[in-house]
């Protein structure tokens, strides 16, 4: 008995280090992942008096998303914040990338924090070595390119478009007539600059902070899909912690993900005005948007049904309808 108390006390005092990686710039006011990582660090370190230390590795110091997710999955680092590349480890993550799934952020946040979002997190825990602690936001994604203004899918014909390292975006761009090339995020600016690809797709605040407007002329506000940030921790590491530390980490991750969403939402609201000074911006008409939606959604859903349990697709569509109804949409 006395021995086990000693062991418990020693475990409680054990110094723990959590390394958390992301590939965005080390500025919390422009990069939501960095804001999230710094908030998580502050909350965990202050709640434990520094017993748990959090080291943040931003700006692709530990590689692009695929590389550091590999490290989290293997347990060579403890945590990462990532979006598209999650599909390489957990194909079910692509269910959130269905084109034109979410009508706005409010509906997306409700679905992610609701039973469907929890179900996807539980599935990830069962099928990988990672646990998703919280959802953050990459945001609504739009096409940019350097060749011509894109008004409708016809204008995408033959354009070489950089996509994230995930097959769902390859399908999306193919369905619209473009030629997709997966490239890790840290290499996107130079690939556009050197003409390796003609265009890319990202939310306006990302286009702004990554200064993609320096190497891209045309922006089309088609909002084809909503990117989700996953906040993952290695399962074996997490399960080795005391239940109290696990709860503390879950709470800190939840709050930090709110900061991620807030910073992203603020920067999304501010970025468009800034981009107007640098880029030619086009907002598709409802008819043009309908063309994007019909082509992309049908093709991606049809393909996704062959990649993951098709019931998940029906469930996410139902969860979106329920969230819409709760907002009176
Ligand atoms: C990407 O296009 O690789 C991502 O949207 C970048 C990010 O997560 O900020």
Please describe what this structure looks like.
By secondary structure, the chain is α/β, with parallel strands linked by helices. The chain has a single domain, classed as D-Maltodextrin-Binding Protein, domain 2 (3-Layer(aba) Sandwich), CATH 3.40.190. 47% of the residues lie in helices and 19% in strands. Strands 1, 2, 3, 4, 7, 8 and 9 form a seven-stranded mixed beta sheet that branches. The chain is globular. The longest helix has 34 residues. The site of D-malate (MLT) has 9 residues, from loops.
CATH architecture: 3-Layer(aba) Sandwich
At the first level of CATH, the class is Alpha Beta
Write out the CATH superfamily name. Bacterial extracellular solute-binding protein, family 7
Q: From N to C, what is the helix and strand string?
A: HEHEHEHHEEHEHEHEHHEHH
The third-level CATH topology is D-Maltodextrin-Binding Protein, domain 2
Say which molecules are bound, naming each kind only once: D-malate
Number of domains: 1
Helical coverage, percent range: 40-55%
- Please state the structural category: alpha/beta
For the largest beta-sheet, the strand count, sense and barrel status come to: 7 strands, mixed
Q: What are the low-pLDDT stretches, counting only 5+ consecutive residues below 50?
A: 1-7
Head-to-tail CA distance between termini = 60 Å
What fraction strand? 15-25%
User: What is the average per-residue confidence, as pLDDT, rounded to a whole number?
Assistant: 96
- The global form is globular
- The strand count comes to 9
What is the count of helical runs? 12
């Amino acid at each position: 008995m006395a021995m086990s108390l000693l062991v418990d006390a020693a475990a409680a005092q054990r110094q723990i280090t959590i390394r958390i990686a992301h590939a965005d710039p080390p500025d919390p006011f422009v990069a939501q992942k960095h804001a999230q990582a710094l908030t998580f660090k502050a909350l965990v370190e202050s709640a434990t008096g520094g017993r748990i230390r959090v080291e943040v590795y931003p700006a692709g110091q530990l590689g692009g998303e695929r590389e550091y997710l590999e490290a989290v999955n293997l347990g060579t680092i403890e945590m990462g914040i990532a979006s598209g590349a999650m599909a390489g480890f957990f194909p079910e993550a692509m269910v959130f990338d269905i084109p034109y799934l979410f009508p706005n952020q409010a509906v997306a946040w409700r679905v992610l924090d609701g039973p469907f979002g929890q179900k996807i997190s539980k599935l990830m825990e069962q099928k990988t070595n990672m646990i998703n602690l919280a959802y953050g936001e990459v945001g609504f994604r739009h096409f940019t390119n350097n060749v011509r203004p894109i008004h409708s899918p016809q204008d995408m014909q033959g354009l070489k478009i950089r996509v994230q390292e995930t097959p769902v975006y390859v399908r999306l761009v193919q369905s619209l007539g473009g030629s997709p090339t997966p490239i890790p995020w840290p290499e996107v600016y130079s690939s556009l600059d050197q003409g390796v690809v003609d265009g890319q797709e990202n939310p306006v605040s990302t286009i702004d902070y990554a200064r993609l407007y320096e190497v891209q002329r045309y922006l089309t506000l088609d909002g084809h899909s909503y990117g989700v940030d996953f906040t993952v921790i290695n399962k074996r590491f997490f399960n080795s912690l005391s239940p109290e530390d696990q709860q503390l980490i879950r709470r800190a991750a939840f709050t930090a993900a709110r900061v991620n969403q807030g910073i992203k939402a603020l920067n999304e609201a501010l970025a468009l005005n800034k981009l107007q000074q640098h880029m030619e911006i086009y907002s598709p008409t409802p008819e043009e948007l309908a063309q994007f939606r019909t082509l992309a959604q049908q093709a991606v859903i049809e393909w996704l049904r062959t990649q993951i349990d098709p019931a998940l697709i029906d469930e996410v569509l139902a969860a979106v309808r329920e969230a819409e109804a709760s907002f009176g949409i």
